[in-house]
Write a structure and sequence with these properties.
The chain has 9 helices and 10 strands. By secondary structure, it is α/β, with parallel strands linked by helices. Bound molecules: adenosine-5'-triphosphate.
C-alpha cells in the first residue's frame, strides 16, 4: 500500500531531517512510527501526504508515485496533521460537505458515513455550529470524521491520540480496525508507546533522521516492552 524507498529530506537551512529512509506498509496493516522529538516523523508523513517536496527517494501509494501521479496518490490518502487547521467560519456540516464534494463522495453514502462517525464521536448536535466555536478535541474529532468518510486506502496521522478523550481514542482504534479489514492501511506517529505496542502490526523507530529498527511488534518487543526497547535505543548512541 505504501512504499518509501531511499527517502531523504534536507530543509533549506541545511538540516538533514530524514536520511535514506525505506519502509513498506502492506494492505490491512497498522504501522507505528516512533521517535524522539525532531527525529523526522512529521517530515516523512508530510512527504507521503504530498504536502512537502523532498530531495531524494520515491514514495508510492497504492501504486501511484506521489511526485508523478500526485492526484491519484492523494486521492488514495487521507492525512491528519498533529494540529489540523480547519475553516473556523464554516459549520461542521459545511466542512464535511466541502470535503465530500472535493472527494466526490456520493450523497447517500456521505450522509450515512457522517451519521455513523459523527454519532459515534458524539458530534452530531454540534455539526450546525461554526467550527470556531468548537473545543480543540471537537475540532480534532471533526478532522478525523472528514478523513474517515473518505474511506482512504492509506490513513496517515501525526500524533492522533494527543488531546483525544479516552472514548474517542477507543473509537478511533475501532475505526482503524474496520478500515484495515477493508484492505486499507494506517501509518501514524506517536509518543504513546503503550498504544503503539498494543495496536500496531509493525513498528519503525527513527532516530536523528535514520531508521534504527523496524519489524513486527512481537518481533521487536520480544519479552520486553516497547518503552524499554525505545529507551535502550535512545541511550546507546545508535544512529
Ligand atoms: N520547516 C522546517 N525548516 C527547517 N527545519 C525543520 C523544519 N521542519 C522540521 N525541521 C527540522 O527537521 C528535523 C525533523 O523534524 P520533524 O518535525 O520531522 O520531527 P518529528 O519526529 O516529527 O518531531 P516531534 O516528535 O517533535 O513532532 C528537526 O531537526 C527539525 O528541527
Amino acid at each position: 500500500m505504501l512504499r518509501i524507498e531511499h527517502f531523504s529530506k534536507t530543509y533549506s537551512k541545511g538540516v538533514k531531517a530524514v536520511d535514506d529512509l525505506s519502509l513498506h506498509i502492506a494492505p490491512g496493516e497498522i504501522f507505528g512510527f516512533i521517535g524522539h522529538n525532531g527525529a523526522g516523523k512529521t517530515t516523512t508523513l508530510r512527504a507521503v501526504a504530498g504536502v512537502m517536496d523532498f530531495d531524494q527517494g520515491t514514495i508510492i501509494i497504492d501504486g501511484h508515485d506521489i511526485r508523478t501521479d500526485t492526484l491519484a496518490a492523494k486521492k488514495a490518502t487521507a492525512f491528519l496533521p498533529d494540529n489540523p487547521d480547519l475553516y473556523d467560519f464554516l459549520t461542521g456540516i459545511q466542512f464535511l460537505n466541502f470535503i465530500g464534494d472535493i472527494y466526490q463522495i456520493p450523497g447517500d453514502a456521505r450522509r450515512n458515513l457522517i451519521e455513523k462517525y459523527a454519532g459515534a464521536f458524539q458530534l452530531t448536535g454540534n455539526l450546525g455550529s461554526p467550527i470556531g466555536s468548537y473545543s480543540h478535541g471537537m475540532k480534532q474529532k471533526l478532522a478525523l470524521i472528514s478523513a474517515l468518510i473518505r474511506r482512504p486506502r492509506l490513513l496517515l496521522l501525526d500524533e492522533p491520540f494527543v488531546g483525544l478523550d479516552p472514548t474517542a481514542a477507543h473509537l478511533l482504534k475501532q475505526f482503524w480496525a474496520e478500515l484495515c479489514q477493508e484492505g486499507g492501511s494506517v501509518f501514524f506517529s506517536t509518543h504513546v508507546l503503550e498504544v503503539a505496542e498494543k495496536l500496531c502490526h509493525r513498528i519503525a523507530i527513527i532516530k536523528q533522521g535514520r531508521l534504527i529498527r523496524m519489524g513486527s511488534t512481537a518481533e521487536l518487543v520480544g519479552d520486553s516492552t516497547l518503552e524499554d526497547l525505545f529507551l535502550e535505543l535512545e541511550g546507546d548512541g545508535h544512529g
